[in-house]
């Protein structure tokens, strides 16, 4: 624009910046001229907004694009372009390419670096179909975008063996359908450093693995799945590496494949999943996060299982939080746990329910726990394995259970509810109705808990009620430890209650060991039991309450052992039995058991002898 004092103004182009310098004219006259010419020409500018900055004495106004034009595509009378490709050739940045209702576009196209919206009918995305075909195997669209640039698919069906590759920028898929073609192929999306959002989208069939094995592959950047419903598939839905991932209000169900190894897989970065459901997944892991910070909240995992490692979750990383989630009716017929693996130096499982999972062959009935963390206010109900550890296997260095319930879990070989091989502390937990029996692989034992290897277990203010072990199929040594079996390692029991726990007799068991220790059996290791109560426990062999066959056992500081029983003809030590081990009793009451109170060379203090000679 050129301007002189007479008021003549020549606007070279409305899209160019307008710069005004004082030339001796009065400022008010100059500003009036500027306003008059802008008002006369602004209606001819297709897309503009005005931004003011100060340079010297007068403002500089810069015109920039913001509004969008709409380009109509389809076979209706109002459509200008026959295909998306034709519209793209005429489009400007931020334009909207509108498909007519009932239109299917099969022409190949590539969006390139042009930020546009391809829009159909959000109320009925099936009425506008984007299904480009190619003479090769797949059509491919590649886009390299600046961070602020956005490509959007809105209210369309995306179908067929098409590849959409993005680098940088933003990709939004909203109110869409993603589905297969006649050959079972569905689109594939890859994004590097892109902000990817998929929202309010239904995927009736995610397709078979035909190229990259994954529907959405994300490297870096971010990915959001919100209200995504994936109903069927034979390949992975999402693989994200080093990304900020968020999944909410989404469903993933009816999957069957062996490779890759997960429906949702995350490596590094962080992932948060809330209010979502994974159901009926056969073969792969449902949710897998490796070296990632993970938060799972209010999710449901059901009906996982199959031939390989088809459990719901596998999580490792610097931190993991699982809250208010449920895991039910999952099973895997091999050595895998039915629910999955958590391996983190800082994990929290809170207010979760693990119900009716299993059976598995030799794996754990629900969870394998590594590392260090806390399981709090959670319940483990009716989980089972034909191996050992009906609900949980503790392999970590420092794992705490607080206010948890273990009810009616089943360990076919041993450890009806929990197998401890690492270090575990249990506070205010209930163990009720858990069972170990069968002994197909090893001898049964530990109706509720078994401690193995260098395992360390401490129980504080816990309740053990009606747990049992042993039986006709319990193996050559029978089942010992109706509630707890210490096979090796360390056991500490403080202020706990043991009531109605039982070891069942096996007629083929070794008389010295089988079916002993109605509440606790100690075969090796060291046990310290204090201020705890043992009532109405029963062993169909030795030691109605406690049987010790190896290691060291110390009862002190006010234990109460009464009303327990051992088999009157085959066993002895209705309260306590000691054979080939060291046992001490201090300030504890051990009377009123049947057929006798104590058997074996117990070292007893004067106070205890005075109450029960």
Question: Can you walk me through this structure?
Answer:
With 613 residues, the protein is mainly beta. Helix content is 5%, strand content 45%. It contains 3 helices and 64 strands. The strands form 5 sheets. The chain has a 49-stranded parallel beta sheet that branches. Strands 36-40-44-48-52-56-60 form a 7-stranded parallel beta sheet, with no helix packed on it. The longest helix has 15 residues, at 27-41. The model is unreliable at 1-65 and 472-477 (pLDDT under 50).
- Cα gyration radius (Å): 35 Å
Please give the alpha-carbon distance between the first and last residues: 114 Å
Q: Strand percentage, roughly?
A: 35-45%
Compute the number of strand runs.
Answer: 64
Topology:
Layout: E1 2-3, E2 9-10, H1 27-41, E3 49-55, E4 58-64, E5 70-73, H2 84-90, E6 96-99, E7 103-105, E8 117-119, E9 128-130, E10 139-144, E11 150-154, E12 157-159, E13 162-167, E14 170-174, E15 177-179, E16 188-192, E17 195-203, E18 214-219, E19 222-230, E20 236-241, E21 244-248, E22 251-256, E23 262-267, E24 270-274, E25 277-282, E26 285-290, E27 293-297, E28 300-305, E29 313-316, E30 320-323, E31 326-328, E32 340-350, E33 353-355, E34 367-376, E35 379-381, E36 384-385, E37 392-394, E38 398-402, E39 405-407, E40 410-411, E41 418-420, E42 423-427, E43 430-432, E44 435-436, E45 449-451, E46 456-460, E47 463-465, E48 468-470, E49 484-486, E50 490-494, E51 497-499, E52 502-504, E53 520-522, E54 526-530, E55 533-535, E56 538-539, E57 546-548, E58 552-556, E59 560-562, E60 565-566, E61 576-578, E62 582-585, E63 598-599, E64 603-604, H3 606-611
Parallel strand pairs: 5-6, 6-8, 7-9, 8-11, 9-12, 10-13, 11-14, 12-15, 13-16, 14-17, 16-18, 17-19, 18-20, 19-21, 19-22, 20-23, 21-24, 22-25, 23-26, 24-27, 25-28, 26-29, 27-30, 28-31, 29-32, 30-32, 31-33, 32-34, 33-35, 34-37, 34-38, 35-39, 36-40, 37-41, 38-42, 39-43, 40-44, 41-45, 42-46, 43-47, ...
Antiparallel strand pairs: 1-2, 3-4
């Amino acid at each position: 624009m050129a301007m002189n004092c007479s008021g003549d103004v020549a606007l070279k182009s409305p899209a160019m910046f307008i710069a005004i310098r004082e030339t001796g004219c009065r400022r008010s006259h100059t500003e009036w001229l500027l306003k008059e010419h802008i008002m006369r020409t602004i209606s001819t500018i297709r897309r503009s907004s005005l931004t003011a900055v100060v340079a010297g004495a007068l403002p500089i106004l810069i015109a920039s694009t913001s509004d969008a034009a709409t380009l109509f595509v389809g076979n209706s009378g109002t459509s200008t372009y026959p295909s998306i490709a034709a519209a793209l050739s005429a489009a400007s940045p931020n334009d909207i390419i509108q498909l007519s209702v009932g239109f299917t576009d099969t022409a190949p196209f590539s969006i390139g670096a042009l930020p546009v919206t391809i829009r159909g009918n959000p109320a009925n995305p099936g009425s506008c179909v984007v299904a480009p075909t190619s003479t090769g195997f797949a059509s491919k669209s590649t886009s390299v975008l600046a961070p602020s640039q956005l490509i959007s698919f809105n209210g369309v069906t995306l179908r067929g063996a098409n590849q959409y590759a993005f680098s940088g920028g933003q990709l939004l898929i909203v109110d869409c359908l993603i589905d297969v073609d006649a050959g079972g192929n569905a689109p594939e999306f890859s994004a590097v450093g892109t902000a990817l959002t998929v929202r309010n989208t239904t995927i009736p069939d995610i397709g078979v693995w035909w190229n990259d094995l994954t529907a959405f592959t994300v490297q870096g950047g971010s990915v959001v799945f919100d209200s995504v419903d994936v109903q069927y598939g034979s390949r992975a839905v999402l693989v994200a590496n080093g990304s900020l991932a968020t999944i909410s209000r989404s469903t993933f169900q009816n999957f069957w494949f062996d490779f890759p190894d997960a429906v949702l897989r995350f490596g590094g970065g962080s992932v948060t999943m809330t209010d979502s459901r994974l159901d009926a997944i056969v073969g792969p892991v449902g949710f897998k996060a490796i070296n990632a910070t993970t938060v799972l909240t209010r999710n449901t995992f059901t009906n996982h299982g199959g031939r390989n490692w088809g459990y719901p979750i596998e999580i490792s990383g610097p931190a993991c939080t699982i809250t208010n989630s449920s895991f039910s009716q999952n099973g895997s017929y091999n050595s895998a746990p039915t629910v999955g693996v958590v391996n983190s130096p800082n994990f929290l499982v809170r207010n979760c329910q693990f119900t009716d999972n299993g059976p598995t062959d030799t794996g754990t009935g629900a969870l394998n726990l590594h590392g260090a963390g806390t399981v709090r206010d959670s319940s483990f109900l009716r989980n089972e394995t034909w191996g050992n550890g009906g609900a949980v296997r503790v392999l970590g260095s420092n794992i705490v259970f607080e206010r948890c319930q273990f009810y009616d879990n089943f360990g076919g070989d041993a450890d009806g509810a929990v197998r401890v091989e690492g270090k575990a502390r249990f506070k205010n937990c209930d163990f009720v109705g858990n069972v170990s029996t069968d002994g197909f692989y090893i001898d049964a034992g530990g109706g509720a808990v078994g401690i193995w290897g260098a395992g360390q277990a401490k129980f504080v203010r816990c309740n053990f009620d009606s747990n049992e072990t042993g039986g006709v199929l319990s193996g050559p040594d029978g089942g010992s430890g109706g509630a707890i079996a210490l096979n090796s390692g360390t056991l500490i029991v403080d202020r706990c209650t043991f009531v109605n726990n039982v070891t069942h007799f096996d007629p083929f068991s070794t008389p010295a060991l089988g079916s002993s220790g109605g509440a606790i059996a100690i075969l090796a290791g060291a046990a310290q039991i204090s201020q705890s109560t043992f009532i109405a426990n029963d062993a169909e062999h030795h030691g109605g309450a406690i049987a010790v066959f190896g290691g060291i056992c110390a009862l002190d500081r006010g234990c109460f052992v009464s009303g327990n029983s051992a088999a009157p003809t085959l066993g002895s030590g209705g309260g306590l039995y000691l054979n080939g081990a060291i046992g001490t009793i201090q300030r504890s009451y051990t009377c009123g058991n049947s057929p006798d109170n104590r058997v074996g060379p117990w070292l007893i203090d004067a106070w205890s002898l005075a109450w029960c000679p």
